[in-house]
Structure formats: C-alpha cells, structure tokens
Specification:
about 180 residues; alpha+beta; six-stranded mixed β-sheet; two-stranded antiparallel sheet
C-alpha cells in the first residue's frame, strides 16, 4: 500500500485556488491496486486541482500505454491511452458516492488519494473488445463488407433492371376502395 501513498494530495492547508500535480504510474502501481484488468503499463497523469469553499474539482489528463491481452490471439500488446476526465468532490457530513463524477467527502478530510480515480478513468478509456493492432484492420474490413438482406417482414417491391418502375404495384382491391373514398 506504500506505493499508493505517492498519490496522496494533502488538502488541509490548501488555499482556495488552483494547483497542479503530475503522477507517473508503472507496473508497481497496477500491482498495488490488486486487480486483474491491467497488469502493467506506463502512464503519466496531470491533475489540476481547484479548491473552493464547497468543493474540490479534479481535472485529470491521462496519457500513456497499458499492456493488454488480445481476445483473439492471446498475444500481449500495448494499448495507447489518452483521456481527460473530471471528478467533483463536494464537502459534506459523510463520505458518499453520488454519481460516477461526484462524491461527497467529509469536511475534515486531510488527504485525498487520486490513485483510484486514475485507475477508474484509465479502465473506462480502454476498448471493450481488446484486439491486437494487427487484427484491427481486418475487423474494420469486415464491417465495411456489403450487407445481404436475409429476412424482411415488410413487402419488398421487386424491380426489373431493364424497365424503370417509378410507381409501386398496388393491389387492385385497394385501388377500387381508393376510388370510392375519392368520390
């Protein structure tokens, strides 16, 4: 847990203004979090902290690469990461997570640890389908191939390429009913 202490920001003596911090995360950071999603990586995080009377705003810009395992070939590859996220910490009587971007923290909180926010935002920026870069071109080509209609529940107007057909075919029974309604 000592590895994550480097991500502590002491907020007790801070004036109500803007502060900037830089953090570098490597494989020891991901190992200290005890999770299975990201095993290794090299990520730099720039944190802009704006403190006011009622809240703290954290703007995080995370850039780097993380090691991922391809879902198709099980080869390991480096996934580039570049994300910007905002976290709001409002002062209150108790600690509570109000939403993904807003948390209540106690007024007497001395330090905040940004390691969890860095990991969460980093995880959210990763693609759900983990493909090695050599397979991504193939996957894009599959999406662009011509689509063939297999089933349709509505009527399909058949056209002959030799004769232009601007008018859709109308059932003669409906045509007779339409004549009655037009009168």
């Amino acid at each position: 847990m000592n590895t994550l202490r480097a991500y502590d920001i002491h907020i007790v003596g801070l004036d109500n203004k803007r502060y900037e911090y830089d953090f570098t995360s490597d494989s020891s950071f991901f190992a200290a979090l005890e999770q299975e999603l990201i095993k290794a990586g090299n990520v730099k995080t720039h944190v802009v902290l704006e403190k006011s009377e009622t809240m703290i705003r954290l703007d995080l810009h995370i850039v780097g690469t993380v090691e991922q395992t391809c879902d198709r070939s099980l080869d390991e590859y480096d996934e580039p990461v570049d994300t910007q996220q905002t976290m709001l910490l409002k002062f209150g009587d108790h600690n509570e997570e109000l939403s993904d971007e807003i948390e209540l923290i106690e007024r007497n909180t001395a330090t905040i640890n940004v390691a969890r926010y860095i990991f969460e935002f980093l995880s959210l920026s990763l693609p759900m389908k983990r493909l090695h870069p050599r397979f991504r071109d193939e996957d894009d080509q599959d999406d662009e191939q011509e689509v063939k209609l297999i089933y349709s529940s509505g009527p399909v107007a058949e056209t002959n390429d030799d004769e232009p057909n601007d008018q859709p075919d109308v059932d003669p029974r409906w045509a007779a009913l339409r004549k009655l309604s037009d009168n």
